[in-house]
Structures are given as C-alpha cells and as structure tokens.
Amino acid sequence: MLQFAWICLGGAVGTGARYLIGQWAVRALGAGLPYGTFIVNVLGSFLISLIMGLSLEASAISTPVRLFLVTGVMGGLTTYSTFNYETLKLFQGGAWGLAAANVLLTVTACAAAGVLGLVVVSRLVALAR
Fold this sequence. Notes:
Layout: H1 2-29, H2 35-56, H3 63-77, H4 80-92, H5 96-128
Helix pairs in contact: 1-2, 1-3, 2-3, 2-5, 4-5
C-alpha cells in the first residue's frame, strides 16, 4: 500500500510538471501547435529510458524508486491521449499538414530521445567499470 501511495504522489508531481510545461510552452512558443505535449513526451521518453536503464542495467535505482519515477512521475508527465486528441483536432480543423507533421515529429523525436537515454546509460555503465 505504501508503494501505491508513492506512485500516486509521483503521478501528482508529473501531472503538475506537465501543466507547468504546457503553460510555459504556450507563452513562449504560441498555441499554433501542441508544443507542450511534444516537449513532455520527448522529455519523458528520454527520462524513462534513462531511469529504466539505470535501474535494470546498472542496478543504480531501486525498484520502489523506479516505480515512483517511471510509473508515477513519468506516467503523470507524459501523455499519449493528449497527443492523440490534439492531433485529431488538427486534422478536424483541416490542418492536415500540421497534424501529419505532429505525428511524424513526435514519434521520431520520442524514439530518438529514448535511444539517447539508453546511450547515456550505456556510457555511464562503461565509465563506472
């Protein structure tokens, strides 16, 4: 039950961070594209790969902390459902090019960020040896 509470707390932290990043993105970059969702998903992809790698490959993060960070914080931070909704709204509004670009850029950038996270972990593990 304690682990569940920690995961819920992590979810609250991640959700709050997603809100703040989204608000910042609208002010800094405008509302023409869903920049906030893009940023949290790319950042989350990197951090999930990094945290999982440090936990599973290097045993540097314990299982309870990994669950707090990945399931809780990153689960609250990242959002496929918002990405999906915002992309569909672009399509519905006739912005087919922007919608397609959002899909292509998000999927590509998230995959690249995830790979980068794994590369960072492998380098850190190699340095520790």
